[in-house]
Amino acid sequence: MNNAEVINNQQQTKLLETVSRKLKLLHYSKRTEETYLNWIKRFIRYNSNRRPEEIGEMEITEYLTHLAVEGKVSSSTQNIALCAILFLYREVLKKKINELEIKWSKKPKKLPTVLTREETKKVLNNLTGTEWIIGNLLYGAGLRLIECLRLRIKDIEFTNNQIIVRSGKGGKDRVTVLPVIVKEALKIKIEEVKKQHWEDLQNGFGSVYLPYALEVKYPNASIETGWQYIFSSKKLSKDLRCGIMRRHHLDESIVQKAVRTAIKKAGILKTAGCHTLRHSFATHLLENGTDIRTIQDLLGHSSLETTMIYTHVVNKGPLGVKSPADSL
Predict the structure, then answer these.
(1) 144 assigned to active site
(2) Which has the higher per-residue pLDDT, 321 or 60?
(3) Do residues 83 and 144 share a domain?
(4) 22, 122, 169, 174: the active-site residue
(5) What pTM, to 2 d.p., does this model score?
(6) Fewest CB atoms within 10 Å of the CB: 85, 117, 290, 305?
């Protein structure tokens, strides 16, 4: 590696560190931060490691079109790459980007996969322990998997049968229903977490990650019982953001694997996973006659149009129409 390459690598590292700090400052999630940094690195590599300051709209357009044509990425992936690049230029480099003439990937119109009530019951019956509780929350409360895993003890209101989802998709808070079927198991789980937390404190640990600036505003909150993850990891691990040994929440892959295995055991041939339980929650509520706007609130959708897709998958056929063949 020559001196020019060393300097180039140092500049790129410094730039990415700046992007990372800016993302944290604007309260972007850790997952979004990792995604944006990855796409920015790929964009720079595609342009032969040239400094972004030297790259303009033409190169951005070429790269995004390349992703669609040669890379054959989905429209959503292409859009994420665009958002990352625009963040780099607008928020970090403070450089104005004019309108881009991009060849967009075609977004396929897909209906969500939904399980019947009997299929849902079979899947949940093939889950045990912590995964059973999580599965029932995904289906019974319409939670996204990451929302479920990020639940803290203080987010459960047993008296009102409510779950408070904090900083869901889009950074929004919402309230959804707590399924009665999991209440007792959830209470036992929380008592186990409290005991585990007490032991961690005795061993000099017990701190948990807090979102945004809460850790600065409330210095002792990170060791308070109410802030502990309900579905916590079995092992302590180093928080890469600050170097502190903490107990993070359960890894998504553990639940995903358990749900896939349960679906297979249930003999279901549909392409399904954790998010299918959320789709089934919405569809079954709709079949029960629940108002579409109530479902929108429970799911945390910004647009009613997003929720309306479930009207196409209820068990009465498209748009609730009964086939004339069934009237013969």
Answers:
(1) yes
(2) 60
(3) no
(4) 169
(5) 0.78
(6) 305
